[in-house]
Specification:
Mean pLDDT of chain A: 95
Radius of gyration of chain A: 18 Å
Oligomer: homodimer
Shape of chain A: elongated
Order of helices and strands of chain A: HHHHHHHHH
Low-confidence stretches of chain A: none
Chain lengths: 182, 182
DNA sequence: CCAGATAGTTACTGACCGGTAACACCGACG
DNA sequence: CGTCGGTGTTACCGGTCAGTAACTATCTGG
């Protein structure tokens, strides 16, 4: 299943076949179909696992800097920047949403939920960190991240996505009113 | 060919077959293959036509507010916001880049070129408009737009993408130093 | 009116892919 | 020892899709 996620992410959910996944995982199609009802089901469960990881990240953030929301926010930025420079294939969720044109695909609900949750957590963090306009700042940080991960696939490593950290700091300083380099 | 672009955009380049395209265009497969070498070729030419349109948009902007870069910048924001609220399927270029996982696909070069050009034009416009940090502002506006168009596919119409205009104005005011609501 | 280019039609190939059926295999547990 | 749940293997079905071939129809220009 970890293999499935990697391959879906690397080649896209529509760009890779079940057989290729099972082969890469050292097994075969039948074994997979004894655990998952269909390819769509496998996709959904992969995304749900990714969702769990995403939720855990927020706990991690809290534990790394307990009671210090400003540090948590900076850690979020750091973490996001690493996401961008690491994955040259962007966000699993967003990519899958693009590939799955049907709006009624079951995966879409998972994606929507994760993205909304992420946005809410970010807004709460911005508020706790004392930003002046937490909702606005959260929207901006979220869209900057989303844009950076997409942009990296169009413009490569040297494009605007490389400057994400700089932009995010600009947001929390000028929009949020956080003192320079606290 | 217009039909092809619409269908590629709507269902994704991998999600629609050439038969469906030709049928929708009121013709058939053979006729298409007499004009385009392959499906990949068709994709590339569709993107190139989109690229031309994108270049024309900048001329339009210039003509709408000749010699008034600030108004041009605001018009760009207006135009971007309309893009977001109109297309619920995001940017043709970015979507195609996500779908085409191969980095050596010919379409990738077109996409990269268009995106880089867009970013450069935006940076020049920001500079002409007298923003304090034109490069930074251009990166931010670009990523906000990219993010908004992607986010709309994950979170729907009511998500952060709905607040794009507000964010863009925040950027040109607080990052660029443009007076409030000029 | 004829020639040549362009477009439509039908049918086909070959490949791939999602999903299933039937059967052999192997380890665990009683 | 037996059987039983999980696994591997092979072959297959049905569908879709990119791309081609061969032929016919239509239009245009001379």
């Amino acid at each position: 299943m970890t293999t499935a996620r990697e391959m879906f992410h690397q080649h896209g959910v529509r760009g890779v076949g079940i057989e290729a996944i099972t082969e890469a995982a050292g097994t075969n199609k039948m074994t997979l179909y004894r655990h998952f009802a269909s390819k769509d089901d496998l996709i959904v469960e992969c995304l749900q696992r990714a969702a769990k990881e995403s939720y855990l990240k927020w706990d991690e953030l809290e534990q790394q800097h307990p009671g210090d929301p400003k540090a948590q926010l900076r850690a979020w930025i750091e973490n996001a920047a690493e996401c961008i420079s690491g994955d040259w294939r962007g966000c699993e969720m967003a990519n899958t949403a693009v590939e799955l044109a049907d709006d009624d695909h079951p995966a879409k609900r998972v994606i929507e939920e994760v993205k909304k949750n992420h946005r809410n957590c970010l807004a709460k963090l911005c508020a706790r960190a004392g930003l002046d306009q937490p909702e606005l700042a959260a929207d901006m940080l979220g869209l900057l991240l989303e844009g950076a991960r997409i942009s990296r696939q169009s413009e490569g490593q040297e494009g605007p996505s490389a400057r994400f950290k700089r932009m995010a700091e600009e947001v929390i300083v000028t929009v949020g009113g956080l003192g320079d380099r606290t």
